[in-house]
Amino acid sequence: PETIYLSDYTAFPWTAKSVDLHFTLDPHATRVRSCIRFEPNPASPNGPESEMFLHGEKLKLIHAKIDGAPVTPTLTNEGLTIAVPSGSFTWEAEVEIDPANNTALEGLYMSGGMYCTQCEAEGFRKITYYPDRPDVMSVFSVTIDGPHPVLLSNGNPVVTSDNHAQWHDPWPKPAYLFALVAGDLIAHSGQFTTRSGRDVTLNLYVRPGDEGKCAFGMQALKDSMKWDEDVYGREYDLDLFNIVAVDDFNMGAMENKGLNIFNSSAVLASQETSTDLNFERIEAIIAHEYFHNWTGNRITCRDWFQLCLKEGLTVFRDSQFTADMRSEPVKRIGDVIDLRGRQFAEDQGPLAHPVRPESFQEINNFYTATIYEKGAEVIRMLKTLVGDQAYREALDLYFERHDGDAATIEDWLQVFEDTTGRDLSQFKRWYSQAGTPRVAVNEAWADGTLTLTFTQTLAPSATTADPQPQVIPLAVGLIGKDGREVASTQVLEMTQASQSFAFEGLTEAPVASILRGFSAPVVLDHPLSDAQRAHLLAHDTDPFNRWEAGRNLAQASLLDMIRTGVKPNAAYLAGLKTVVTDATLDPAYRALMMGLPSHSDLATALHDAGDIPDPEAIHTAVETMRTAQATDLAEHLEELYAAHQVSEAYQPDAAQSGARALANAALSLLSRNDGGALAQQQYASADNMTQQLSALGAAIRAGVGAPMLEQFQQQWRDDRLVMDKWFALQVVQAKPEDAAATAKALTEHADFNWKNPNRFRAVFGSLAMHHAGFHHGSGDGYRLLADWLIKLDPVNPQTTARMCSAFQTWKRYDPARQSLILEQVNQILTKPDLSRDTTEMLTRIAE
Ligand code: HT7
Ligand code: ZN
Q: What is the ipTM of this complex?
């Protein structure tokens, strides 16, 4: 496959002044007529050209015309080339497509009898011939004919009736934001008045039967619209905002202008069928897609190398929103757990790439944790460095200067330079250097002065051969021996490879609390004693670092247990008890405190320290630690459980969710002591999915879950989203030696619809996440996943390629596991006609 380079960027030689599309829907023979007015692009470096290339894939060309005269283009699998006049001209074409057989879920496809589209990144070329690149922005008018009551596209409606609709979107947009939906759908409607008085109709379209799962999503949308006005001054710009829920969808959701399309799992919610975590995720995704209206749609990306321009910024904005709606520290801790689990793992392995990559083969493979989550961390650092007010000024300038543009990271940084006068050339390395920097801390204490010396290192990688020092904001505070803060948070700006900062006038040596709030996405090597960590766990005034101290103690103890079989660290267990029973602390925060590093995080830590992780030993150590927690906290668990039962009507808000999280963390430990009796009780009386699923998980772990699993299936067999949970839970809770066999048995279940990405991920995403099960020495996990990826690839390359990342950590395991994994990777790679997506992923992984 061809490699595309950022350095090769050139502007498209024409601009598309207007685009008229006419769809005549038919499952196997949809006709798409297009009429596009092209004008020479003055910004094109080569001046007018005599031939035009338009992308197009899997299209049957019926006819084409230029300025009304029939033409015969040269066709390839990637598109067409046609001779064109030297000035402006009108291109017309009619093509036929087959949505019912479009299983890749890109372009126009069918899901449960409805038509829908997914055009980011390069799906529009499967709908019609077009310059399918984000810097070609145009005004779209769309006509849809088809035997359906609901016919939707972007923008505002011009004509809507059964079987016929016309839409006009006044805002110029790239083709990746085009959307069309048609079907027998029900609208859950709402209304929002913008701060300047524009009345906006809001609709959430769902399949009949799902009407009862819309209210929460609608409220989340209104909250997002209000928040973006209040915090960023951004107002909505159409008369209508539609969201559609679709069952077959490759990712979470898509921000098409005025017509967001959502994976039904990312929008449908009810107390009976959704957990508190589902509600929180739905709120965040609705916000994320809505926020794209400004950061992504009004200002889009010049090319796909700039993807973090919209994704990093929008993730950062949605994390601010969730922090405001719920709890800031709880959100931050959750985000950092996620970043370490997914992004740090990516950075450490063969798929490492900069936040702004410089080359790719298949752009779909770059919707990664690095672009999204590290991209958001980079913006968070920028805000920390310039301060809140300057950040807001820079953003105001960004929106003013670039509204309607297809912009770049240079444009983004320039607004910060212009508003603050800072030189951001060194900061820009965050966008170009792959890998996670490590920051080592050395402390020297003399004469009332604490000197902290930081040394940053970044390991060379395939894309960053000669790494240079980065700008690292280090938020630091000092905690005295009596537990009081002796120096409040200061942001130290590290710019050199090694740099010292002195804190003078201290009466005694304090404990330094470094990287408060996780002020930079780095690995901190701060050699503290167990006693110092316990001191921070008890007293740190920074909630993130207080949690971090507990996590570090737990991790250090687990690593010792894995290496030498010692018992769990008593200082950790004692510190945990104090925090967990401290009723002045937020229950959600205490629930997080009870968590442990994931198996995969421990494997990473072992690998970092030069050890070869043994998945079985990790599993055993974690189980031992959990049992130790259950024993150590035994006298408090029942009280914790009882004190956090919610008696009010169910609400998925932060307060109730936090109480349930703590009660269920207690239940999980209690079940180790009572054989699952309380879990059985909770299951029987649960009136919401959080309680039902937590109880089921605890009961399975206690060995008494089988009848409940059966009951669960009977209760929920008609609800596809809940059945995804049923599939996933069995794999997640399987013993390591049974995980692959459990997954295999589930693939034989009548409801295992492997072409549905949610169902496929429920089984195989869970298997890949089950560290000890997937990496079981038998190699059964690797073989099963590989066999199914081979089957899925011709049907849905995008989902197949994403799941290949399960193999990305192969180099850290022992030689036997390495060769078992490589055997499977190579087996997939040798399949004829393997997709470009999967080929690129596995080739990079195996390199
Ligand atoms: N901008 C979107 C990214 C995306 C996507 C979404 C659904 C299916 C396929 C997709 N390919 C790329 C989603 C977002 O970040 O908001
Ligand atoms: Zn996004």
A: 0.98
